[in-house]
Amino acid sequence: xxxxxxxxxxxxxxxRGSDEAVYPPMSTMLAERGIQVLNGYHxxxxxxxxxLVVVGNVASRSNVEAVAAVALGLPFLSMPQAISRLxxxxxxxxxxxxxxxxxxxxxxxxxxxxxxxxxxxFLVGGVLRNFDRSFGLGAGDDFVIEGDEYExxxxxxxxxxxxxxxxxxxxxxVEFDHAEMYGSxxxxxxxxxxxxxxxxxxxxxxxxxxxxxxxEVVVSSSICARESYGTAxxxxxxxxxxxxxAEGMDLKVMHDGRPFGNFRSPLSxxxxxxxxxxxxxxxxxxxxxxxxxxxxxxxFAGVRRRQEVRGTVGGVVVMDDFAHHPTAVRLTLDGxxxxxxxxxxxxxxxxxxxxSRRSVFQQEYAESFDAADRVIVAAVDxxxxxxxxQRFSPELLVADLKARGRxxxxxxxxxxxxxxxxxxxxxxxxxxxxxxxxxGGIHGRLLEGLSGxxxx
Length: 456
Description:
This protein has helices spanning 2-10, 26-32, 64-71, 79-88, 102-115, 185-196, 212-221, 270-285, 290-299, 326-339, 362-366, 394-403, 414-424, 442-454; strands at 16-19, 36-39, 53-55, 76-78, 92-97, 121-128, 133-136, 142-147, 151-153, 156-159, 168-171, 204-208, 225-230, 237-245, 248-255, 258-265, 308-313, 316-321, 345-349, 374-377, 407-410, 430-434. It is α/β, with parallel strands linked by helices and 456 residues long. It has a ten-stranded mixed beta sheet with strand order 7-6-8-5-11-12-13-14-15-16, with helices on both faces. The protein has a six-stranded mixed beta sheet with strand order 17-18-22-19-20-21, sandwiched between helices.
């Protein structure tokens, strides 16, 4: 919603919005663009009768502003409807979707096109460091958009990505997630089949061959041209990591069994290798050559909250990451272990999403932290939002981690976590904080505490 607000402002509209809690980097981005954020939801926010009300999926039917919009007879759309009607018409939509890797892949796709002078438009669920924003209106044909499988709005329970008119699409992965919306993996597959079925016969689907669920969805649903990517020998676009250091990785890319290019990327890990292969395939299809692709990969500055280094104090690196699904946690830590192979790696995890508040992945999380040297698990954020009897147990996760030989602790509060880290972190350590929220401002508090320690 913040990204759409920025896009509307860039298109020349007057924009404001209501929310209960906005935090960096989105709050900063909105403020810098003069977009007013009203605190809380109140009917009088609509007294001046705006031309259009965009209703985010956080708003229920009983939300006072949603009720007021209907009562006042104001036009209203869901976020995906607004994007489709106001921006996608006349563009070539490149839709990036999948359970994992959407934001990084979409951001990288937008930057490759921009780096090559194609001036794409884009709307991504994270702030791109190359642009210092999550959106952009360009003069080119392409519109890169992150396609989310989550529900659209209270009046449209279908996935957001069903509104995005894909002409070219990337499908990164298909796993069970969003347990409050999808009852099973089969239900998730059905949603992605619906998306794949939207791609027209003259469109193109780039899909990850390493994921068997993706293969099942693609084979049964697509009518368009398809190209696969991954580490398997049978992939149309196959990649391998040939070198890793603290600054990133070197990789080799093959296309249909022939060398395509040797590239350097500041990203790390096999999941980011796959993300790179996906955007390379699309970029090639959109007319970029290997040299242009290589320059875009090399100069990509990343996405805030995706393995973002927030600071280094006294030799201790403090990193922010959005990982919350057990697969994302595992892949993030595996990539960081490769990158910082000789350094002690701390994983600080806050169960905060609707799915991670539930016990559905209790055992899977126990198997996701093997690459970390030390693990700290925080209390579940708003546990009452998960059904009673189905709530995630941080204490059980810590017990399971210890049974697997991990050094793990349950520290409920941010204050306790910060105190432990200030006391025990040593030069050379890498601390990755994994949460999809602000986590009580833990990054700033930790850096401040480490800074105070370093002056003693």
